[in-house]
Design brief:
With 409 residues, the chain is an alpha/beta fold. The chain has helices at residues 48-54, 63-68, 72-77, 81-85, 97-105, 160-170, 188-210, 230-242, 262-275, 290-298, 308-316, 347-351, 354-362, 366-393, 396-407; strands spanning 5-11, 18-24, 27-31, 33-37, 59-62, 91-94, 114-115, 138-140, 145-148, 155-158, 174-176, 219-224, 253-256, 260-261, 282-284, 303-306, 318-321, 324-327. The protein folds into 2 domains: 5-304, Alpha-Beta Barrel (TIM Barrel), CATH 3.20.20; 316-407, no CATH class. Helix 6 (160-170) crosses helix 7 and helix 8 (230-242) runs parallel beside helix 9. It is globular and about 65 Å long. The chain binds one RNA strand of 83 nucleotides through helix 5, strand 16, helix 11 and helix 14.
Length: 409
RNA sequence: GCGUCGGUGGUGGAGUGGUCUAUCACAACAGACUGUAAAUCUGUCGGCUUCGGCCUUCGUAGGUUCGAAUCCUACCCGACGCA
């Protein structure tokens, strides 16, 4: 018995995109879908009730963070992550692979998921070896990764097996293989070396997972890496999709990982999804600006997670609207007594004005961050919902064109 | 009335003869953010500018000095104390 069931209901003609249904032990996800990120067992600023009301179908928490605090064993004793955080819907956990990157090679360099080469601050020198003298909190070894806790500095060692063990304790419906995310500034030689490691770790994750009963209630997704290189990307997609445990088990779905230059994102996703088997779900890790969501859906991505809506909302009240992003603290909104978007159905837009939001942000009231998060999550969640409906209605390209015309103007 | 202390840029508050348009914080203004080291971070914050500078500011008015936010005098204002 497989833990998840994925069914494709409609495809975009002559393209990779599709709409489907993903059934998990904690409920069904209509795909494509936007996944709310709840790294530390909370979508920042949102109660599970608010998430549900906003239209959220599924959340993603993080292995590394929860292992450090409060500890995966404690969460297991609490009855698992669903019970612990009060979210009884579908849930996934990231493997800690991204922290290999963000606390390792990317540490202190101001780079993350998407690199902007035009930004002088991101002209990072290339790195070919593991040691360039920059202090970092994660060091990659062939067997696993040494982490120094960003909380208290203590040293931890995470292997693929350890990541699986933690994720088993957490108990999410979909879990990820332990991988190494690389920077686009790395040269090909290192990308290939890291890819071999990611594949070896994927095999070990698969092996460990299927040696436990958890494999019956938790789906394991393998992660495709390979940077910007077509050959590596296609090779990774093929190897991960053909990978089998000694018992013959395969991955239940796939994640597409990496840190990208904006221009490389499209090609990487397309190459990978041309190789991956059609009948399993695909998750594009950490991507979620509107234009990227359209690209992903068009190219066969079923699930997206992204911190952008909550982080942008919470930090300075940067809000998504159909006319592009707006910063609610800008002077012009101080006496604007209209909603963020008059035709938005979210709780924030149906109850409050821009002026009120602006006031909350200027006064540093936490409700401002909460209401802004509600709107942003609603916006992106419903944008992907609209894409799904448009695929089913056969109007995906019309939706994309009309949205982008207004959003990017 | 006498005495003491004090008046600095939107605010608080450094500075006590040159390195002062004047540390710092806050506020304000603008920006960044894509598997959350993030309720974080960056820039601007007297005026003008051909971006090299130029001009104007430290209660007010004088003065000393090559040079004053910094020293002196008078005045104005505030707090406290004594009458």
């Amino acid at each position: 018995m497989k833990p998840i069931q994925f069914t494709i209901t409609k495809k975009i003609p002559n393209a990779l995109g599709r709409a489907g249904v993903l059934e998990t032990p904690h409920g069904t996800v209509q795909t494509p879908a936007f996944v709310s990120v709840g790294t530390k067992a909370t979508v920042k600023g949102m109660t599970p009730e608010m998430l549900k009301d906003m239209g959220g179908q599924i959340t993603l928490c993080n292995t590394y963070h929860l292992y450090l605090q409060p500890g995966d064993e404690l969460i297991a004793r609490a009855g698992g992550l669903h019970t612990f955080m009060g979210w009884n819907g579908p849930m996934m956990t990231d493997s800690g692979g991204f922290q290999v990157f963000s606390l390792g090679a990317a540490y202190g360099k101001g780079i993350s998921k998407v690199l902007h080469p035009a930004e002088p601050s991101q002209q990072i020198p290339e790195r070919s070896s593991a040691d360039d003298g920059v202090p970092r909190l994660a060091t990659v070894g062939n067997d696993g990764v040494s982490f120094r806790s960003h909380i208290d500095g203590s040293l931890h060692y995470i292997t693929p097996e350890k990541s699986m063990e933690i994720q088993h304790n957490l108990g999410a419906d979909l879990i990820f293989a332990f991988d190494e995310c690389t920077s686009p500034t790395e040269e090909r030689r290192y990308q290939e070396e890291a890819l071999m490691r990611t594949h070896a770790w994927a095999k070990r994750s698969l092996e460990y997972h299927h040696a436990r009963p958890n494999a019956e209630r938790q789906a394991l997704l393998g992660i495709v890496q390979g940077g910007r290189d077509e050959e590596l990307r296609r090779r990774s997609a093929r190897e991960i999709s053909l990978m089998r445990s000694t018992g013959g088990a395969e991955f239940d779905g796939f994640g597409i990982g990496g840190s990208f230059e904006k221009d490389d994102l499209h090609s990487a996703v397309q190459w990978v999804n041309e190789e991956l088997p059609e009948d399993k779900p695909r998750h594009l890790l950490g991507i979620g600006e509107p234009e990227d969501l359209f690209m992903g859906v068009e190219n066969g991505v079923d699930l997206f997670d992204c911190v952008a809506p909550t982080r942008n909302a919470r930090s300075t009240g940067t809000l998504y609207t159909k006319e592009g992003r707006m910063r609610i603290m800008n002077t012009k909104y101080r006496e604007d007594f209209t909603p963020i978007e008059s035709d938005c159905g979210c709780y924030t837009c149906t109850h409050f004005t821009r002026a009120y939001l602006a006031h909350l942000f200027h006064a540093k009231e936490m409700l401002g961050s909460m209401l802004a998060s509600v709107h942003n999550l609603y916006f992106l969640t419903h944008l992907v919902d609209q894409m799904r409906e448009a695929i089913i209605a056969g109007t995906f390209y019309e939706l994309k064109e009309s949205f982008m015309k207004s959003y990017a103007k």
